[in-house]
Design a protein that fits this description.
The structure holds 2 protein chains of 2 kinds.
Chain A (H helix, E strand, L loop, with lengths): L6 E10 L4 E9 L8 H12 L6 E8 L5 E9 L2 H7 L2 H7 L9 H12 L5 H5 L6
Antiparallel strand pairs in A: 1-2, 2-4, 3-4
Chain B lengths: L2 H33 L11 H25 L7 H36 L30 H7 L18 H17 L2 H10 L12 H20 L7 H11 L14 H4 L6 H10 L3
Helix pairs in contact in B: 2-3
Classes of the chains: A alpha+beta, B mainly alpha.
Chain lengths: 132, 285
């Protein structure tokens, strides 16, 4: 499967019935170019396995020394519901399916310091309001 | 050919003739003995004897082939060549067994040469399983445990015979260290290459990967296998990153001219500690 001189090959293909997915190792050959972004890899895998690209999750891409070859992992779920059930939150966030609220570092540290002044269940109440 | 040379040739041929007569006499004698059953092979043929016989047949076939070649006749398809190949393969298969027997054979040869074993020879000591059985009675142990243990100094149990090193002087120790350093110096790359150069036998060419590189490769291979099996990625620690850089990058070029210390052989003294420290620092870049 070559498009713009980037070839994708899959290795160690396994159908994981327990997690309702197919998992494989993805090798991308891209001589002379930079590493291919994950979204392109997803689209190419979708064409190879005749699914939509939104159930495909790929991660862990490492380029070999010298460039030209990248290896990573790919998971293809049977449906999006299964994906939402089994995938870790950070990978869902990468696809935009989940929003994780993150407060800033400073806010977290200040909350912790306010909590230190209180004992027991009142700690949970302390974090709610920000003192001015 | 001049008259001198003719005379020399004649005398040489006469010596050849007399010597061949002696050889034929000896061979006839041996042949007779074998025919009469002087050498018994009822218990089968021993390993060393087999080796002798094979080497002998090998030499015979080899001389036959050289004779053929010196006469100018071709040796294509000669059964002697096949025999040579067969004997050679058998000899090479016998080599690991030979290696295993080496210790025994060397010991026997040494006793034969020195005429008896020395009683304080450290090689005579071997494990004695009888010493592992507890020969003391267990009855009185539990009662007197509390009192006795406080007063007695702990003596480790004497299970096997150990080599006594108490009478070793400083000189002996230094000599031992020097010997070990010499042995180590003999196996450095410089001396190995020198040995290969001056060796008259056939050279063996092996694919060389240094120990450090093979270690790093093995580690990397184990890590990638684990990663692929478990569908995860490791984060590489700084130490591992530096090791990989050292092996794969250009920093290993600096170590091309760093040779091991062979002062044990050249100057007859053990290598100093300071010189090795200097080497370590420059290997950093």
């Amino acid at each position: 499967m070559s498009e713009g001189a980037a070839t994708i090959r899959t290795r160690k293909f396994m159908t994981n019935r327990l997690l309702c997915r197919k998992q494989m190792i993805v090798d991308v050959l891209h001589p002379g170019k930079a590493t291919i972004p994950k979204t392109e890899v997803r689209e190419k895998l979708a064409k190879m396995y005749k699914t939509t690209p939104d159930v495909i999750f790929c991660f862990g891409f490492r380029t070999k020394f010298g460039g030209g070859k990248t290896s990573g992992f790919g998971l293809i779920y049977d449906s999006l519901d299964f994906a939402k059930k089994f995938e870790p939150k950070y990978r869902l966030q990468r696809h935009g399916l989940l929003e994780i609220k993150k407060s800033g570092r400073k806010q977290r540290k200040e909350r912790k310091n306010r909590q230190k002044k209180v004992r027991g269940t009142k700690k949970a109440k302390v974090g709610a309001g920000k003192k001015k | 050919m001049s008259g001198e040379e003719v005379g020399e040739a004649v005398s040489l041929l006469e010596t050849v003739e007399s010597q061949t007569q002696d050889v034929t006499k000896l061979v006839d004698h041996l042949h007779q003995k074998v025919m009469e059953g002087g050498y018994s092979t009822s218990k089968g043929i021993s390993f060393l004897e087999l080796k002798y016989q094979l080497l002998l047949s090998y030499l015979i076939d080899l001389t036959y082939i050289t004779l053929q070649k010196s006469q100018g006749s071709s040796i294509q398809g000669d059964p002697a060549v096949e025999r040579l190949v067969e004997i050679r393969t058998v000899l090479e298969k016998m080599r690991p067994i030979d290696k295993k027997l080496k210790y025994q054979v060397d010991k026997v040869v040494r006793t034969a040469a020195s005429g008896g074993t020395d009683s304080s020879d450290p090689l005579r000591y071997r494990a004695n399983p009888d010493n592992l059985i507890n020969k003391l009675e267990d009855v009185s142990e539990s009662e007197s445990e509390g009192e006795e243990k406080k007063s007695k100094l702990y003596q480790p149990p004497k299970l096997t015979a150990m080599h006594y090193e108490g009478d070793e002087t400083e000189q002996d120790r230094d000599q031992k260290i020097l010997e070990r350093a010499k042995k180590r110096a003999l196996s450095t790359s410089m001396l190995r290459e020198l040995r290969e150069e001056l060796n008259e036998g056939p050279t063996e060419i092996r694919e060389t990967t240094s120990a450090q590189r093979s270690r790093a490769e093995k580690k990397l291979r184990e890590r990638t296998e684990y990663e692929e099996e478990n569908f995860m990625r490791f984060s590489v620690s700084k130490k591992d990153k530096n090791e990989m850089k050292k092996v794969a990058g250009f920093s290993s070029l600096n170590n091309l001219t760093h040779f091991d210390d062979i002062s044990a052989l050249t100057e007859g003294r053990t290598p100093q500690a300071g010189s090795s420290k200097k080497r370590k620092q420059s290997g950093k870049a």
